[in-house]
Write a structure and sequence with these properties.
The chain is built from 19 helices and no strands. It is an all-alpha fold. The C terminus is likely disordered. GO terms for molecular function: transmembrane transporter activity.
Length: 503
């Protein structure tokens, strides 16, 4: 199931590095190709909260195997697509099946394993989440270079077949309750779909459309608020809700959800900022960006056993405080970023942030479900995964807005300071003008002013990246503060499980 989860989560990141090749391959415009990513996320988010109900009704194995079969078929269909509408349609179905493959893994880790082994299982699940976001773009770039962009989707077929066999053979650990098919809350389902689709679209497209200046974004925001409130009311009032909100009665779960939201912002936000900085400011190639970004993934991979041991040995609250403090400190290093930063300057930031995020994520997820009854674990898993993904979407939307707004603000400040009244600025402009004159430029003064404007814009962008790193750091410090309000829980120890039925 973990292999399937990795495949589903990787499929959003692996495509990111090859959108240009896909665009030329199917003759799409820039707006159309962005929907290859957006539609996948929209579909994924809608199905996540519903997986708990589906697995209760049909059983985990049936739902998971069915989702993987659908994912394999739609992956092949996306890879074979020759037009934009076909690709977007199949990509939506692929995202729907992918979203159904993610929450059951955490629920299984927290219920099938004996209490003393759940932390180890949680470490593996957390590792998959973090690795998929860091190695995806690198893997996608290499696959496209070696074969073609279509293999970004075809690669899912042999892996999916393996998952179908293994899960179908070994994952018979619970039974469904077919009686749940009677009295399905269709109104709740419609409200949830409209709420999540509207919210995710606003988060994905809001920054590029100047938020509420765009009529569609404004009305979708209103729609999301109204349907979100109505959905929550419906789930509290209906006798058989499709998404149980009972886990929120546990204060630790409610606080853990907030911390999971922050780890989503930190996890996806960090992997969003650095490739843009390295590509736009430093001019790194895709391969150089991928090599630099791999540090985070490797740090998390190497540190995952250490993180698991720390979580088992310490009070979960201490683990959360240490994890969020490490992540906040490391990200805060980025506030001093300059246009000279490269691999080694980002090394410490990424390595410490990787360990901190891993530690905080494992501890906060463990804290969230530690005092919940097993019967609520499936519902809790769907809510945790949804919250982490929404946190990532919120983080990317806010970071995009911060970069755009703060770049403009810093540019105005720098341009004002670099007026002709400033002796240093005047000397720099004179020097550039002389260089252009010596080079035989037709209008040396105009070209010199344009070059100076470019230099100011680059410095403004660097300062904006510093502001974005500061935003992420503040989020981690706030999450650290929430850890002090959680109740102490103990990771239960129990007898080793007895082998059953030849397994």
């Amino acid at each position: 199931m973990v292999i399937g989860q990795f495949m589903a989560m990787l499929d959003i990141q692996i495509v990111a590095s090859s959108l240009v090749q896909i665009q030329s391959g199917i003759g799409a415009t820039a707006d159309e190709i962005s929907w290859v990513q957006t539609i996948y996320l929209l579909a994924e988010v809608v199905i996540m909260p519903l997986t708990a109900y589906l697995t209760k009704m049909w059983g985990t194995r049936a739902v998971y195997v069915g989702a993987v079969i659908g994912f394999v078929i739609t992956s092949a269909a996306v890879g074979l697509s020759s037009s934009v509408p076909l690709m977007i349609g199949f990509r939506a179905l692929q995202g729907l099946f992918a979203g159904a493959m993610i929450p059951p893994v955490f629920a299984t880790a927290m219920t099938v394993f004996p209490p003393e082994r759940r932390v180890t299982a949680n470490v593996i699940v957390g590792l998959i989440v973090t690795l998929s976001s860091t190695i995806g773009p690198t893997l996608g770039g290499h696959l496209t270079d070696l074969l073609s962009w279509r293999w970004l989707f075809f690669i899912n077929i042999p892996v999916g077949v393996l998952v179908i066999f293994l899960v179908g053979r070994y994952a018979d650990f619970d039974k469904g309750d077919p009686s749940l098919s009677k009295g399905i809350d269709w109104w709740g389902l419609i409200l949830m779909a409209v709420f999540l689709l509207s919210m995710q679209y606003v988060l994905e497209e809001g920054a590029s459309e100047n938020w509420f200046e765009d009529t569609l974004i404004l009305w979708l925001t209103v729609t999301a608020v109204i349907t979100g409130v109505a959905f929550i009311w419906r789930q509290l009032a209906y006798w058989q809700p499709i998404v149980s909100l009972k886990p929120f009665r546990d204060p630790n779960f409610a606080l853990g959800i907030l911390m999971t939201f922050v780890t989503g912002i930190s996890l996806f936000g960090g992997t969003f900022l650095m490739p843009i900085f390295l590509g736009q400011i430093r001019g790194f190639s895709s391969a150089e960006v991928g090599t630099t970004m791999l540090v985070s993934g490797l740090a998390m991979f190497v540190s995952s056993p250490i993180a698991g041991r720390i979580v088992r040995m310490m009070d979960l609250r201490i683990s959360m405080v240490v994890g969020f403090a490490m992540a906040a400190w490391a990200i805060q290093l980025g506030t001093r970023v300059t246009d000279e930063w490269g691999f080694w300057e980002f090394f410490t930031l990424q390595a410490v942030r990787g360990l901190g995020v891993m530690l905080a994520m494992i501890a906060s997820q463990q804290m969230s479900v530690a005092s919940l009854p097993v019967t609520q674990m499936k519902d809790a898993s769907g809510l945790i995964n949804l919250t982490r993904n929404v946190g990532g979407a919120v983080g990317l939307a806010l970071l995009t807005t911060i970069l755009s707004h703060q770049t403009a603000v810093h540019y105005m400040e720098l341009a004002s300071a670099a007026s002709m009244a400033n002796a240093n600025s005047a000397a720099l402009l004179d020097g550039l003008t002389q260089m252009m004159t010596a080079g035989g430029t037709a209008d040396p003064e105009a070209v010199a002013r344009k070059a100076m404007s470019g230099m100011l814009h680059k410095q403004a962008a660097v300062l904006a990246f510093g502001d974005a790193f500061a935003f992420l750091a503040i989020g981690c410090w706030l999450a650290l503060g929430l850890a002090f309000f959680t109740r102490p829980v103990k990771i239960q120890a129990g007898p080793a499980p007895k082998p059953a039925g030849g397994h």
